[in-house]
Design brief:
Blueprint lengths: L2 E5 L2 E3 L5 E3 L4 E3 L5 E3 L1 H17 L2 E7 L5 H10 L3 E5 L9 H18 L4 E5 L10 H9 L3 E12 L4 E8 L2 E8 L2 E5 L11 H9 L3 E3 L40 H14 L11
Length: about 280
């Protein structure tokens, strides 16, 4: 049976979050925790593929106990099972340690039900690195297909997938063997309102919760802060941009003012030959 695993993350709503002026760090208490928007599209795409080809969708995340709410949101979208790995020993993980922990969880899930496809959001809105998905693929030794904005075909019999990858000036068509990993763009689909049966199921659903001790063959040195070679030393809010200059007077007068400004920026008119 076709089995898709979607990797998700619970993040603070960056539209609301504020900065602590004393510590120059994000004050996570000022914003509610939500399902990472990119991951919502990943789960929606997994559900759509399940509807096209049959099968089941599992979601997995690493985080504190309140991350259960993010899993419930995925059940509401249409996922079948949810797995939360939570333990203080995961705390402080960078993208390298996170990809290691999530990979170990996926390996345990796969022992019960082999995994054919892994789908992640392109990135999380609180980190913006886009590194965890490819990191999981590297650890599992499967092809990573990044910036996917359309899944053209999944051929389970012949074991391949065809997708469109978003580029700056268009897209490219890529075929990959299965299993593989997609990291998807938000443009891949629209996440609709959930039907009432899904909402009722999500409210009642209790995910599988694992600690480090529940996962097999784990190297403690690769978890949390111990397994994180990178750290965020400082976070600060960007400065406000300087105000612009308003042009006044008639259209002719405004053109003259604009021309004067451009002429003052002499470097704009220096040719390559004169450099």
């Amino acid at each position: 049976m076709f089995h898709i695993v979607a990797c998700i993350k619970q993040v603070p709503d960056t539209k609301i979050i504020k900065m602590n002026p004393k510590t120059n760090t994000m004050d996570r208490r000022t914003a509610p925790a939500i399902l990472n928007p990119y991951d919502a599209h990943a789960v929606e795409e997994a559900v759509r593929l399940k509807q096209r080809y049959g099968g089941t969708v599992s979601v997995v995340t690493m985080g504190p106990p309140p991350a259960v709410s993010a899993i419930k949101k995925c059940i509401e979208i249409g996922a079948d099972e949810g797995y939360l790995i939570t333990d203080r020993r995961f705390a402080g993980a960078d993208t390298l340690a996170t990809s290691y922990a999530v990979t170990k969880a996926i390996e345990k899930i796969a022992k019960t039900r082999p995994v054919d496809l892994i789908i992640c959001g392109k990135m999380s809105i609180d980190g913006d690195t886009g590194q965890v998905g490819p990191g999981i693929a590297r650890r599992l030794d499967i092809p990573p297909l990044t910036s996917v904005n359309n899944v053209v075909e999944i051929n389970l019999e012949e074991g391949y997938a065809v997708v469109h990858r978003k580029l700056e000036d268009g897209y490219e068509v890529v075929q990959s063997t299965l299993p593989c990993l997609f990291s998807v763009e938000k443009t891949i689909n629209e996440v609709p309102y959930s039907p009432m049966p899904n909402m009722i199921k999500a409210a009642r659903y209790q995910p599988h919760i694992w600690s480090v001790d529940d996962i097999e063959d784990v190297d403690i040195k690769q978890l949390g802060l111990k397994g994180s070679p990178t750290i965020v030393s400082k976070v600060w809010a960007p400065g406000k941009p300087a105000g612009g200059t308003f042009l006044e007077g008639s259209p002719t007068a405004q053109v003259e003012q604009l021309l004067q400004v451009l002429l003052e920026k002499k470097e704009l008119f220096v040719s390559k030959e004169g450099m």
